[in-house]
User: Fold these one by one.
Assistant:
Number 1:
Amino acid sequence: MSNVIEIVEFTDPVCTWCWGSEPVLHKLETRYGEQVKVSFIMAGLVKDITAFYDSYNDIGGDPVRSNRQIAKHWLEASQRHGMPVKIDGFGLFSRERVSSYPLNIAYKAAQIQDQTMANRFLRRIREASAAEAKLTNTTEVLVELASEVGLDVARFVEDFSSGAAQEAFEQDLATTERYNARGFPTFLVRFAGKETLLRGYRRYEDFKAVIGLMTEETIIERPTPASEEAIFAFIRRYGSVAPVEIATTFDLTGGELASTLASLVLKQTIVCREAGNGYFVSPKISSAACDTATGICKAV
């Protein structure tokens, strides 16, 4: 597609800087609209924590010790990228749960079923892992999250367990190896047969510059008014967003963000829920409203 630029993130659902990249990706999707396509390659961060070692953050080896180091690293990263994390009760890894691979395979199972739901599922896994300290590398929690986003649970379990999702994940690992994407996130930017790699966490301005260069300014961002209506539409689009995602997308100061959210709360159009060291904002569900995707009706 000559009028679309593709941004492929090599990722793992428990990578904290991938979590921190969510505001930037949402801004790209909002500012460039249908001109940009964001997709994901599951790159598998931790095959076995007992054999893993991140020398920079001193993570790896004993699972219990690794959990403490991961929590420390995530909190430090959160203070930089602004996405919420919960370190109280964090215990993702244990002697029985040594890998993040099940989360990657779960995404591939969801992708077999429906791409849009798979991306919604990936976001939900990230939230549950980073901001809720859930044991997302267990089948029970993954099935629960799949149900929350409206996936066909029976089919999800079948694809997750039968080897189909495992095979798809192995193909992603091969792609990751081919591009030598060893640190996450790594972004592959594609346009009209051209490709370039951006390694590590990147600011919106980095993507904007690369998009302009690769497309010779034929693809440009569109003005995004910071009106209450536009901000509420953004919240509705994604369903659950951290304040930093709104501020980043609409270039809001702290005061402007607080004022807008306070107004929307007063109008009873949004609700806020605590999450670790921060919170998420979601549209308020009207009385007896039913979600056709999940088949769940909720009352206020």
Number 2:
Amino acid sequence: MPRQPTIFLSHGGGPCFWMEPPRRFGPHAYDGLRSYLSGVLASLPARPRAILAVSGHWEAALPTVSTSAAPPMLFDYYGFPEHTYRLSYPAPGDPALARQVQELLGEAGIATASDAARGFDHGVFVPMLIVDPAAQIPVVMLSLQQDLDPAQHLAIGAALAPLRDDNVLIIGSGNSFHNLTTFFDGQEAESVAFDDWLTEAATAPDAAVRNDRLTHWASAPGARACHPREEHLIPLMVTAGAAGPDPGRRVFHDAIGNKRISGYAFG
């Protein structure tokens, strides 16, 4: 079985694929992202037996793994049209994979917790409804550690790297730009500067250089203007850590509301 890559993807804004984009964005604002997400499975070397999803919408004191065999829905967005609260993503969980995740992290000296009640938050179900609309691939969720330390999340990813050889796809779901207070201002300079820096860092041919740059992401041009709080960027650290020496490449790039958005794959 070929080794799976790891992927950091942007999951859009709320239930963006099931509602009209803001008028100033134009009617096709999310078409490019939808098209990319719909082609993720076809881009893989094999259909994964399961997906480990690290969402920017779940933080816990310790890295926490969902263990339910049938995760419910968790509608963690507010103020959207009523029909967006009737979305359903009935993919199964995978308790055996959840145990494997905890074992791998434990072997690396990383303490974990488990959660049998955790549902699919929109950082998971929104992209997965496009990636695997039949909801046939089991999905296990892994939380961020709430200190959001980039080096720690690179280490978490490194501990999980063996999953790639077990036909598990590791997805980090966040956004390369996430500042809700400026998302609608139409300005692009800071997002362009940060996106250029992030792409150079994520695609650095030397993994040690890549990981050092990502560890110090906050010193990048436009960093805090694009991420006042970094929870939507930190899933990238997990995917980069799980990449090992494999190089990164940018697999998605678009401007949504004049903000530059990118996605990356490793391996």
Number 3:
Amino acid sequence: MNVNYESRYAIGPNEANALDTAALRANFLIETVFADDAVQLVYSHYDRYIAGGAKPVSKPLPLETIDPLKAAYFLERRELGVINVGGAGKVTVDGELYELGYKEALYIGKGNKEVVFFSNDASTPAKFYLNSAPAHQAFPTKKVTKAEAEIVELGSLETANHRTINKLLVNSVIETCQLQMGMTELKTGSVWNTMPAHTHDRRMEVYFYFEVPEGQAVSHFMGQPDETRHIWMHNEQAVISPPWSIHAGAGTSNYTFIWGMAGENLDYDDMDKRAIADLK
């Protein structure tokens, strides 16, 4: 079996406020997203969300079911989002082949029994970042490129948060049950993401940071708006954001991150915005 997984239980803000740095990281940080010739997964009890990665190097990697799902196959009752952040690769879904280049996405609907990941060149392997959520309906599998994404420009260089939001697997682009994924690219000279911050009590979120230059880092902020905490993160690491928590970050350089979320609804703008001056 090429799948490694761990479960993370959901905790509330009162419990999180009492955590030291090591415990905060153990509960929310996903340090290892990619491992050679393995599928790495974290099963979160926040909205039963799964985040992880598949990195085929010397062999194809099938997406096998894991015990917490109690399912005959991984997508028996789930949907899956895939974004390639490595070299060129391909994914087969019940035998149908999809080529995925750098920063290209694939939505795979409920009911597909066999998903296999491949790299085109072992010297520059593909890195498939994966997010999955429970699904009640089967929607078609579909590839989405950056050119097909809904694109939004936000922020400014003056406030160090000039960024491009690429909405890839969202309801304005494709049909999904509850999973939504996109990618935010910060411009040179900008370091802040998701600022002003917000919460959304109706869904949770996971951030995956990449294109963080060697020797640089991102400080990810979480917690209730009046009781924030931070987690230092490095390239190709992810962090779980509970519904009660803000999710924002500032890097020592510009970077890119993938956001994925699931919960009550598909309204991207369903946010409880928090003024910068009110953060503590």
Number 4:
Amino acid sequence: MKVIMNINIARVTCFSFVITISTLSLATAPRPPIRGCEMQTPCSCSMSDGSGDIDLTSLSGPNGQPKFKDVLNTDEGYYYSYSPCGAFSEVQCNDATACVLDENKDQSQQIGDSGRAAFKYDGDHVVVAYTSGTGVLKLTEVSLICDPTACDPIFVPNGEQGAGQFEMTLTTICACPGKCSASGPTSGCHSNHPSKGGSAGGLSVGTILVIIFFVTLLLYLVAGLAYMRFRKQATGSDIIPNKEFWVVLPSHVLNGGKFVVAKILRKEASYNKI
């Protein structure tokens, strides 16, 4: 009996020792740093994990106007104006960064003062918050959605969530750490416009193909005319290269068009009949 008790005491002592060591290890283990975004200016902040700055400076409106003006919230019927950087004035809103207007756009309420900004990280996105007024403040929170393809920012006013509390979302490449400077996107965009696949220097694929076609046609005509004139000693209309082809081309095009129309109208047609 005494031996069994000694064994049980040893087991309890060993278990208590393991629990104590585990607790001390958890208490002293280094915790991962809390991610945040330290404000640099009312338009920018720096990520605490070193991933880079989020800079909204380039998203300012022109000539004292909001970057996003009178964007409708269909559920409320109200219009929202917002400028991520720089102040604007609209109706009764002055020196504002966020403003809401009624259905007729003749009454407005300032819901964010320029320069009164704060940045935080909510676990998913960086959020910039603006306050307005004195005493009972109005609060507007804008979730910054990082999208490296959103060279043109997308602004969505989510409306009033509670008394004096408003929420918005802004999807932009400038919400991605290190992707924008004060002058705009640092990579992936051209002059703040969407970088679309199949384009070069702002020209679409269709435009490039048209340019290539006409340049090739011009070279063909110049080279052909020179060859027929100086090598073949041709004169008059005979100087046109491949003259026979160009003479019959219009009739072939016309016949092809008639054939297509006949097929659309479900008429019996063939190239021979046409």
